[in-house]
Specification:
Layout: E1 4-8, H1 17-23, H2 33-43, E2 46-54, E3 57-69, E4 72-77, H3 99-120, E5 125-129, H4 138-142, E6 146-156, H5 160-166, H6 169-180, E7 184-187, H7 190-206, H8 215-225, E8 230-237, E9 240-250, E10 253-259, H9 270-284, E11 289-292, H10 298-305, E12 310-320, H11 322-327, H12 331-341
Parallel strand pairs: 4-5, 10-11
Antiparallel strand pairs: 1-2, 2-3, 3-4, 5-12, 6-11, 6-12, 7-8, 8-9, 9-10
Helix pairs in contact: 2-8, 6-9, 7-8
């Protein structure tokens, strides 16, 4: 079999990128060129659209963001500050391939990508977090990456009655209680979108954590993806908005992304009603799956597990060279390195 070659997509080939994403089971809305460009703009990084070619055929691709701080050069997929959990490599028509070809493509692509980043780009640090539809982590292990499993929750919502019955009994009671108390869930607009971002910013501020991207980042995403791929679900109580969730849609999945801040509605839990209304809406619109992102902290996973979705796995693969390891030993440089590798 011919050798896989890694190269950057040329300017006259950029129009091919979203087709590669659409043809890949691992492709997500955040893989699209528009979302990637918005990330690049607001994270002060450089976007590299790398492809793996077998002859004239593109068999793999990965978006990587590079950022240099002082003497350290990092490559990320995704980069910190974008508030997205995973990105990583994609493989067109992967599900139609036989197992030996799947493994060959992935194994050789990872091998050549690692060599390309180390030799051509002089990388000091690499962080790749894969999409949930890529279950194989061995090629990263074989290339001496530190690999950590991570998780989201996902549910097939084609049978809505079954989805309802699978909810924890207390969740069903909370939903019915919200409806009894006239909590209204509706699809929001820009004003509601800003309400969610402001609420999220305040919640993180209380935890002494700054909202990573600028608010302009969220506005750019809104203007590009609303209403087709960016959905806003708001809860109103006593005539006032109390909380909301921003979701994304792509292919056969609706994904619960950010929002759902706590409310002062004692004894009433509008977040549970919103989550259920998102499932209802997704089912009505023909989506097969509903995804709840983020199940990697005990407190958060406990809250989200009550919906009784299934776990979906993805991987964080990290590699650092000797320069980074030595730098970490010096306290005076710790802040520099920490800012690069997080």
């Amino acid at each position: 079999m011919s050798e896989i070659i890694i190269r950057e997509l040329r300017e006259d080939e950029i129009h091919l990128w979203d087709d590669i994403v659409a043809q890949s089971p691992q492709g997500t809305i955040v893989h699209e060129i528009s979302w990637l460009r918005i990330i690049e703009k607001h994270t002060n990084s450089n976007l590299h659209l790398l492809i793996g070619c077998l002859g004239s055929e593109i068999i793999a691709a990965i978006p990587l963001f590079s950022k240099k701080k002082y003497f350290l050069n990092g490559f990320y997929s995704p980069i910190s500050g974008a508030m997205i959990q995973h990105l990583g490599p994609i493989f067109p028509n992967y599900d139609s391939l036989k197992q030996d070809k799947k493994e060959y493509y992935f194994r050789e692509f990872c091998l050549k990508l690692d060599h390309y980043l180390n030799s051509n780009k002089k990388s000091d640090f690499i962080l790749i977090e894969t999409s949930p539809n890529l279950l194989d982590a061995r090629p990263f292990v074989w290339n001496r990456y530190d690999v950590t499993p991570k998780y989201n929750y996902v549910k097939n919502i084609e049978d809505l009655d079954s989805t309802w019955n699978d909810l924890k009994k207390q969740i069903r009671k909370n939903i019915l209680n919200c409806e009894k108390n006239d909590v209204e869930v509706y699809e929001g607009n820009l004003e509601d979108y800003n309400f969610i971002i402001e609420s999220l910013s305040r919640r993180l501020s209380e935890q002494e954590v700054e909202l990573p991207p600028s608010k302009d980042y969220f506005l750019d995403l809104y203007h590009k993806y609303y209403p087709d791929n960016l959905k806003i679900f708001m809860a109103k109580y006593d005539g006032n908005p109390v909380t909301g969730i921003i979701a994304t849609t792509y292919k056969d999945k609706i994904s619960i992304w950010v929002g759902a801040t706590r409310t002062d509605t004692k004894g009433i839990y509008p977040v549970d009603l919103i989550q259920w209304k998102i499932m209802e809406w997704g089912h009505k619109m023909g989506y097969k799956y509903c995804e709840i992102q983020g199940a990697n902290m005990p407190s958060i996973s406990y809250f989200k597990s009550r919906y009784n979705f299934d776990l979906e796995i993805y991987y964080s693969a990290k590699k650092e060279n000797r320069k980074v390891k030595i730098a970490l030993q010096f306290k005076k440089l710790y802040g520099v390195v920490e800012g690069l590798i997080k």
